[in-house]
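Bug #77: duplicate submission created two jobs. Keeping one. Sequence:
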Amino acid sequence: MSKKILMLCSPGYYKKTGYYYRAIRDKVALENLGNIVDLLVLKGWVSAFKTFLVLLVNAEKNERYVCQNIGSVIPLFFASYFKPKILENTILIYHGSLEDLIAFRFYKAKRFFYELIEARLVELGSTFVCVSHSMRFGLEKKYKNSELKCHVLPNIPSPDFIRNIEAAKEINKSNLRSELKIPQDKIIICYSGNAQAWQNVEFLFNVFLDMPDEFHLLILTIDSRKMNELKEQYKIPDCRITLRTVDNIQVPKYLVAADYLYIVREQSEINEYSCPTKAVEYLYSGTKIICSENLGDISSFVLVNKLGIIISKINMKNINLIRSMIVEDSFRVNELLRSEINLDSMFGTNLQNDVYRLII
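Kept job's structure:
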């Protein structure tokens, strides 16, 4: 049955961050199920206050509220003290741990305030949609004496990405490498992203530094200056590294053409609760993955299905061990990975439709 839904988003929507892409995918999924979805972006406190006033007057206009992350719940939180049923009809798409706030000013104050919002959502029977089972388990442990309504819906690649990755996999790898002008006879480790510290790119350069000559490093980035600085710092010759800035539509071809894809994050609650869309895109490529332990549900999925290499400790003491693991695994690098793996059951659009059909 069709419902009138108001989707609330934080300012990150305008910055085209992960919130934007998740919001668009969720909106499309809800509309495909026959619902009418209006999208409202909260630009700041003034916008949140105006929304709060509107809710006090005509909250009944909307049958459901879908909030992209906890910051967008603020007007509903205050309105719930006048109209508690608002939060009963609210679905929170929880993108990650509150520890994420540590990067912002006034962390402790914001954390305290968002903890109040989270507890209020639980108290009034809101529905939580987590991006990982790890996050769901964390919430269930935190509110073990409450009746928590919680579901898991990972971040998934866009339909365009999936179409492009499937098309790339139809091309012979040798032909693909020839088209992309990357080495034919090398074992290619690919990193796609920028040079932020939390991406652990320098750790990748350290690992690669003394790898055998048959390995080649492929970096896809818009941060060419920083990557070139790292290349010079670690004295990696041009013949062993390829730095490219490419259109997003071309990225799937490079992922399929590579032998390993690198995504390594620090051990923290932030990463334990996360579901990086990049990691799910890597899984769809069918290429082996080098990833860190406790990266949301990704690490266990890779481990159980033998889809790559898990790095348990990110420190210089383990560098030689990690190199050895990659070299040893490279003898099996051409094994067929995806023939028996059903990614759609965990990361597919059908799962998205099933979850929303259940909770709306």
